[in-house]
Amino acid sequence: MGEKSYMAKNDIILEMRGICKTFPGVRALASVDFKLRAGEVHALMGENGAGKSTLIKVLTGVEKPDDGEIFLNGRPIVVKSPLHAQELGISTVYQEVNLCPNLSVAENFIIGREPIRFGKINWKEINKRAEQALSRLDLNIDVTQPLGNYSVAIQQMVAIARALDLSAKVLILDEPTSSLDKNEAEKLFTVMRRLKSEGLGIIFVTHFLDQVYAVSDRITVLRNGELVGEYEVASLPKVQLVAKMIGKDLDVLSSFKKGRRAAPDIDQDSTFISIKGLGHAGTINPFDLEIKKGEVLGLAGLLGSGRTETARVIFGIDKADSGEIWIQGKKMSLSSPRDAIKNGIALCPEDRKKEGIIGDLTVRENIILALQAKKGIAKYLSRKEQERIADRYIELLNIKTAGTEQLVKNLSGGNQQKVILARWLVTEPDLLILDEPTRGIDIGTKTEIQKLIIELAEKGLAVMFISSEMDESLRCCTRMAVFRDRVKIGELSGDELTDSTIMKTIAGEA
Amino acid sequence: MSELKDKLKRLMKMRLFWPIVTLLAVLIFDTIFIKGFLAIEIKNGNLYGRLIDIINRASSLMILAVGMTLVIATGGIDISVGSTVAISGAIVVQLLGAGETANTPFYVCIILALLVSVILGAWNGFLVAKIGVQPVVATLILMVAGRGIAQLITNGQIPTTQHKPFSYIAGFLPGLPLPFSIFIVVAVLIIIGLIVKKTAFGLFVESVGVNATASRFTGIAVQRVIFLTYAISGLCAGIAGLMISSMIKAADSNNAGYLIEMDAILAVAIGGNSTSGGRFSIAASVIGASIIQCLTTTLYALGVSPEVLPVVKALVVVAICLMQSEAFHHMISGIFSRKRRLQHEKVAVEI
User: What is the mean pLDDT of residues A121-137?
Assistant: First the structure.
């Protein structure tokens, strides 16, 4: 008897076969298979751009696949829209709760399918149903209160309750824990375990390794739009998972000696920036960090581990709510990018398009912009001076453009990145923070940028280097700070700088 | 032959090409259909004629359009300028008094009116840049409240003034052949032009309008730039207010500059500026303002009654917008030439 229900639980409820999706210029999914069984929590893992969100979008009808089939309970389905997905029994709870905070809990729960009798909404019944559904998740709250009065965790529960009430067979949780604290996340896991014991199939998308191991049964790993494999959690150590996500075989790595450049002779007084207990609630826990002149410090960790957040809080984009920054022995408060820039810090941001280039301006204007901002409105660089600077850096960085007056949005990604690099080099910074400077750039340009970084460091520039590519980090960096789950967990230097040590540290097994 | 075609193509791609063609089209239409349109006479050493009249009446709109151009270039909008026009006029006329001799020194009145206008613009800028209110909502507050404020200043009356120097602003300064307002426009254009071209202000405005986040990350004081554009727009509205009240030698709180913000926005758009911010051209907006005033004068001259004027104007504006729309150009060329359409497809395939 018990044996039988166990079997039923392991039935495949959802199968995606050979899913392909291409966006202009990018192959997002290349023949990806995915299987979800009843009564399991299945983690979908992969670095940024691996294809997780595209796969979810295909499943929920947001994107149409170019090729491939989807089966629900063995029957082929074509998901036409998110609404259609819900009707089929595939419900999604997104990272950002997309409910209405100023409506009551019950209203949010029922919205769009109110029971109507004689043209009137039956509020009593709605409240009762909402209470019942929430108590199933161990949540006893006043459902007539506005949703916004409750914490994000509870809002998330309401979203889940709503999803379940739509008679879901498949529940997709997309980064559900990213705005929850530890206790709240633990509560969510309890609910997830209960739901799976009731036979629901749950797809769990997250960056947090520990959480995957705490609650999942199986893991499917994607990388660069391709399926790496499906694994039982019990038989996949964390280190191996990291290796599979990043795309390195651990055994090969351990035997592989790196031709890393030697750390330069750094004299003790050359510390450029010293950070003590700097933190920003919700993005990065307080950390200490020191960067010397002429040093390339790498930040290692998975996506969402706090690397970018560290850069943002140093550059004053996110205002630090604790800690101190000392620049060349002087205590500074950097509460905006302007402050940071005035103190000799520069940042090439992660999102080139949104935060880096100013697309409708010319290459010349983009290159001189930071210098001009530093000088102020009144001291306008003459057109001649602007052209001289632009020409110099176009040549120096080998930027491929039709000329200084070309609009920067017409350049390729790699050349746009070089324009942003030029923009900062013009300001002659002391510390250059590079967040994924070579992402989405062809190999040739990549190497050029890496070479440039090393050259600059040798001339005394302090560099903070964030990259998801292990090879690149090892080639450029002399020291690495490792982050996990928004906490800086250690520093590695010298002989410790190998793929396997870094991965073990990231996975927490060092 | 092909060289000529290339030259024409390059000409057509120039930013000011279509606005200028539009303006010329309206002027040519007027020359043909309105008797004595180009005629200019000299009376008492002053020049008179329809053309002069159009420029004189367009001048307040041009000045408003200059301020509006900067605001729109940052990705904002200022719909409160009509109300600021009323307030500025109310302050001047109220302070001058009804008689020929001024109750308050003339220059003090002007400076006070302009100062208040700048403060009103700064208020808008504060709401948008510092508080983060949506530009339409932020300036809607002053748009609605402004006429009430003007009424308070004038005690709900329409005060008039006989002060001579004040009437010169929108009239003829003794000894000058052209209306004085034209000189004001030229002065404003030169000053704003210098600020935009000779300082980094223009570059920063465009940068903020294209990508505010990236601009902040580059170290531009985004809030300050946005704030300044609204303050300048307020000042421009104040100057326009002086001109408009000078024209009727009175301060009509309800009707002075009524709905003129719409014409100002239209001037910016018809001139070919993007209404979503970014690259801007003040010259384009000035041409846009001229087109609108030409249009209004033309319609009056043709005997279109004031009641139906907005409808006719709207139709012409739609026509002008179509004329400047690139998508429409493609459609037209597609209808007239199948061959060219095939070429387009070929290019698309190659891309």
Answer: 85
A462-466 and A296-300 as β-strands: parallel, antiparallel, unpaired? parallel
Numbered residues of chain A with Cβ closer than 8 Å to any chain B Cβ: 315, 317, 336-338, 341-342, 347, 349, 354-361, 365, 369-370, 372-381, 423
Q: Look at B200 and A358 and tell me if their CB atoms are within 8 Å.
A: no
Is residue A16 within 8 Å of A39, Cβ to Cβ? no
Collapse the DSSP code of A337 into the 3-class scheme (helix H, G, I; strand E, B; otherwise coil) and give the result. Answer: helix
| Sequence-separated (6 or more) residues with CB below 8 Å from residue A464 | A291, A296, A297, A299, A311, A314, A431, A432, A433, A434
- Alpha carbon distance B17, A504 (integer Å): 64
As beta bridge partners, residue B296 has none
User: Residue B26 corresponds to which tokens in the numbers above?
Assistant: 């309206």
Distance from CA of B202 to the nearest CA of A (A): 9
Residue in chain A lying closest to B208 (CA): A358
Complex ipTM value = 0.84
Reported as a single tens digit per residue, the pLDDT across A163-218 is 888 778 899 998 887 667 777 788 889 889 988 898 899 999 887 788 889 899 99
H/E stretch holding B284: helix B282-301
CA dist A479 to A83, A396, A466, A484, Å? 50, 27, 12, 17
Contacts of A158 (CB under 8 A, 6+ apart): A97, A99, A105, A108, A109, A134, A147, A150
Q: Is the pTM of this model over 0.90?
A: no
